[in-house]
Amino acid sequence: MPTRAKPEKSAAPTKSDTPRTERAPAPAKTASSVGEGGELHQRAVAGDPVLTTNQGTPVSDDQNSLKVGARGPTLLEDFHFREKITHFDHERIPERIVHARGSAAHGFFQAYPGAAKFSKAAFLADPKVKTPVFTRFSTVAGGAGSVDLPRDVRGFAVKFYTSEGNFDLVGNNIPVFFIQDSIKFPDLIHAVKMEPDRGFPQNASAHDTFWDFVSLMPESMHMLMWAMSDRAIPRSLRMIEGFGIHTFKLIDAAGAVTYVKWHWRPALGAQSVVWDEAVKICGADQDFHRRDLFAAITAGAFPAWELSIQALTEAQAEAFEFDVLDPTKLIPEEQYPLIPIGKMTLDRWPENFFAETEQVAFHPGHVVPGIDFTDDPLLQGRLFSYTDTQLKRLGGPNFHELPINRPKCPMHNFQRDGMARQDVDRGRVSYEPNSLAPRGPRESASGFATEPAILDGNRPGDKVRLRSATFADHYSQARMFWKSMTPTERTHIANAFTFELSKVETIAIRTRMLGHLNVIEPELGARVADAMGMAGQADAITPARPVMELAPSPALSILGKAPATIDGRKIGVLIADGFDAAVVARVRAAAEAEGATVEIVAPKIGGAAAADGKKLAADHTISGGPSVIFDAVVVAPGAAAVPDLLADASAIDWVRDAFGHCKVIGVVAAAQPLLDRAGVVSDAGVIPLDAKSVPAYITAAKAGRIWSREPTLRGPDRGVPAPAPKKR
Ligand code: HDE
Fold first, then answer.
1. pTM over 0.90
2. Which CATH architecture has domain 564-703?
3. pLDDT-flagged residues of the chain (< 70)
């Protein structure tokens, strides 16, 4: 017999001396259990929900499992315990193999007048109609719990719940892709994900396997230029552009076909952070992008994007200098301007992350009448992959019944049963044709019918495993991208290549990549080789096709078209005891008038006392709210507090980083010693601040970063002209 240690003590605690979570059940529930049952009933009547099992059985004790004696083994018959633990054990579903880390929001789309000219799709027909949407942004390489700001492509997937079925526009924030044929997708993803023998790095392309693969795949060169540009480290999900990448077909009411590229443009303008900032943000706030989207939407500052198309006739598509079926090529906006066709606004954060953001199932094959595919071999492969992946992730063929995936228009067919079927299908008839259900669902002439035209050069031939010769130029648009960047953006690209290739251990991979960079643009190759200390070591690479000198496309530059705005941006104000409340209040009023938010940073979270003695609460401590999380900053401590700040490394870093990341700094005179200690040199972005100069500070902040500061601060490539480009 096991010994029972003082059973009476734990078996009958008094309510007053035992916290609820530690209460042990009375072994013999007689009168008291009846009493509790009565209590349950009363609470239910009062509208206060009773805790039940998943079968609806009321639960009397959710604090203790059922045991043989207070210290004895747990009993198998405890169905409530087993149900709860089993459910918990199965709470995770397989995460997406790519795009596992994502954040999403609900919203609506409204077409502009004239959109119907291109497509008979119902959601484009009437500008008054608000089509519900659910939009999920994601990184590609990392797992679901990875950080928000690695250098990576961002997914931009929109589900339109149209009156004629769901249309999913499953795109990225970069208009081209790494590969041309979907059969290479598993290789690409295996190469970029953590290396299989060591399990790292998580969510980073700066390692050998990624660069090994891409350096052997010249077709990835154009996309690499984008991935090494600032596009891959966005400031906010609200500030990214989106692209459908593949060429799609739109079909109008008369059956005419337009070949289109899809584009999303953010109302707030596109903006990125700098690399050093991204690295630090990943430590300061792993959820930087998710939190930013959540905060904006819950505050009512709804992010919006304009949807546009580039529209080509078949003849124009055929005449374009690259194959429009090649997803490593874009069509310059200067050649085919964007035609705006509508606007998306995201105005509601999901109720439940798992039910909606995790379980949403996108698929480029979810199209509606008026939209159709082309034979882009990457798109064709995706049309298979996405259903397959949902079967695995969501456990069977009924994923369309989950509320987030269910169309919001009527849906009827004869598909039946399967794992976790929710619908209770009625009647005898589950087949077609039938005569027993004359009012049952039938085909309709207005239903989706594949648009049969294929581009002229794409007539069916023999069964082959071939890459079209029209896909063979891998460098010309990569060079065009380089030529389209501002000097600052070029420096960022050179530094990104330098950083990533310096992480590659295998010398032969580095020299191979340097060879490709020389082909893309000798100046780039030379700058990166020089910054790596590997000048003259590049492999000689001969492109399959001579590189063409294409005209630059200014539309590809983020900085070149950056709007002067602080709308949607965040200003951090560092205060400490004795600060001037009037200056801080003016900064807040002026910033908020421009659509920005202001957050207060102070040595203590309880806040700081102004010169007039009034206390202002802080949003962050100095180390908890480093300047990397702000777009512009104000340094406004009281004079008496400055000596303490000078002794605080996080305060010095706060200022040093703001300067190093080229941010506009407003500073009160008393704080000058802090700027001196942080190595801040006065320039156009360091604004002496008093009550009068607040407008000047806001104007400077609207102009964005002080890029002229950057070459004085950070290498290895400081944007200095490279050694004389070699002749090709
Ligand atoms: Fe995806 N992709 N992909 N992809 N993709 C997935 O589907 C795939 C590609 C994109 O927020 C998966 O539901 C193949 C291009 C986004 O849930 C999977 C190929 C573009 C998302 C899949 C591509 C994308 C995915 C994983 C090469 C830009 C996230 C989970 C042919 C146009 C959607 C899932 C979300 C997700 C396959 C290439 C965008 C495995 C085979 C090109 C935004 O089905």
1. yes
2. 3-Layer(aba) Sandwich (3.40)
3. 1-45, 720-728
